[in-house]
Predict the 3D structure of the following.
Amino acid sequence: MRVLVTGATGFVGGHVVDACLKRGWSVVAFARPTSNVAELKKQGVALVQGEMSDPAACRKATADVDVVIHCAAKVGDWGPHEDYIKANVDSLRVLLDACKGLALTRFVHLSSLGVYPATHHYGSDETMPIRDNHRDGYSRSKVLAEKLALQYHAEFGVPVVVLRPGFVYGPRDRTVLPRIVDNLRQGMVRYPGGGEAALNTIFVRNLVDAIFLSIDQDQAVGQVYNLTDGDHVSKRRFIEKICDATDLPYPRLRPPLWFAKTATWISEALAKARGSKEAPAFSFPRLKFMGLNLDFSIEKAKAHLGYRPRVDFDQGMSETLAWYKANVAERVKDEG
């Protein structure tokens, strides 16, 4: 099996590459010219360096591959919608165009549970309609991207499967977890609505397992699947795990959700008025993460794919925090 992995230098993509190599598969990594590819070279991965917006680079990357696992994406909770659409939708169209007519076994498109409406969810499943009127560019672009991928399946026969993971955590996360720890140190973490609402967590190896199941199961083609750890994890449980590992005090502020929404609306309006390039302390994506009940059904993935999360939340967080303390916290301490 010869597999193309986009975003191979990233958090999820790096784990996907490792898992492919363990299976004995040949891996092609599509990476931007500015990406650090030293580890991929060490692993003997074939490299195609270029921009996904370049049709020639996409044709070169997809030549002679059996499977495409599309992990690359611009992530974030702030910035012009056009930037996210250019990175996550327009570039995807170029990659999909390169896949038309190829004898692919699968095109795995990683979407996000963020495509669902920004409201409380209690077991929401894949039958719930999604809309592209999200306040943030990332969520809007992910809706448009998965619709585009499914369109290419319907119109051109590209064997697309769409996976919607929740909040992905695990070793090698050098972005989100360090930011949460930094916010905890600064006393910026609050529990809008009390902190007992569900968080839609998925350990990175559980996600990788689901990716391979979607490749192995023919009935996955043309389908969309929600993915989490299948465990009820409250915001407070998640945050306090981090606090315990980093010797930081538990957050105490628990503003009512209506108050947090009002403060967030004002915060975003002021940031936009002054043309801020950085997300304000209170933004709607962060409010969704910390304030809304994000419980999604994974029954379809269990029934169709045989998905059974192998790593539970406690074990996954233990591995994640051990890696963070050894590789990020110690480095920050040394630099300090």
